[in-house]
Design brief:
By secondary structure, the chain is of the alpha+beta class. The chain contains 4 helices and 11 strands; from the N terminus they run αααβββββαββββββ. The chain has one domain: Protocatechuate 3,4-Dioxygenase, subunit A.
């Protein structure tokens, strides 16, 4: 009987673990310690964090359905669905602390033609590195989260604040494993966005800033220099501009 895809992947995973066990002479007590560690991470509420930090970037990078357009990025653990459309591109409330930032860009197809009517679902950390809903109620539930739509010429605009660099939660099992591996818990500053249109493959990506010290050593190994763009200034007003290129549905 022909094996299913699940069976094939599981078999290869078991074989890979077998090779690692032989290579490193893994003992049974070490195996039990690994099982206990994963269980502890799940019990500590770090199931998503643990696998996002160590595995998600690999899956995103190897996804064979993504062959063109803007580089995809990890979704991460701080996304909330069903956020509302925002008015006039204003993502940050008037009293939002931090450096004000204007975000400009176009949505294009792989032929460099503009795409209108693309839903752009943005979310980000605030100037202290906090995500609403995950910050213990320090900010409003929908803070720095919302959607805009590209216009007929593919243009979009946001008015927000520059997000801060931040550490992924590092006091629990995931942080301990990062430390054991000699890796720091810092993520470079970034904006998250999901681009949706019925005629194009959904794009999940992140936008970074040129010169960020953690671009090359992102804790979750997701950051990509082709997604890092320069900040420009007119007086004290900061801006960043980038295009999003979508892959047509097959």
């Amino acid at each position: 009987m022909e094996k299913t895809r699940v069976a094939n992947i599981t078999s290869d995973l078991i074989d890979a673990v077998h090779e690692i066990c032989i290579k490193h002479a893994v003992t049974h007590s070490e195996y039990r310690a690994a099982i206990n560690f994963i269980s502890h991470a799940i019990d500590s509420g770090e199931r998503s964090l643990l696998f996002d930090a160590f595995l998600e970037a690999n899956v995103v990078a190897s996804d064979p359905t993504k062959i063109s357009g803007t580089t995809s990025q990890v979704l991460g653990p701080f996304y909330l669905p069903d956020m509302p459309f925002i008015k006039d591109g204003v993502l940050a409330r008037k009293n939002e602390p931090g450096e004000r930032l204007r975000v400009f860009g176009k949505v294009l197809n792989t032929k460099s033609e503009p795409i209108g009517g693309v839903e752009l679902d943005f979310w980000q950390a605030d100037a202290q590195g906090r995500y609403s809903h995950f910050d213990g109620g320090a900010t409003p539930e929908e803070n720095l989260r919302g959607k805009v739509e590209s216009n007929g010429t593919g243009d979009f605009f946001l008015e927000t604040v520059k997000p801060a660099q931040y550490t992924i939660p590092d006091s629990g099992p995931t942080g301990l494993l990062l430390k054991e591996m000699g890796r720091h818990p810092w993520r470079p500053a970034h904006l998250h966005v999901i681009a949706r249109h019925p005629d194009y493959s959904t794009l999940t990506t992140q936008i970074y800033f040129e010169g960020d010290e953690y671009l090359e050593s992102d804790a979750v190994r997701a950051a990509s220099t082709d997604l890092a763009f320069p900040l420009t200034y007119e007086g004290e007003q900061a801006s960043v501009s980038f295009n999003l290129v979508l892959q047509a549905c097959r």
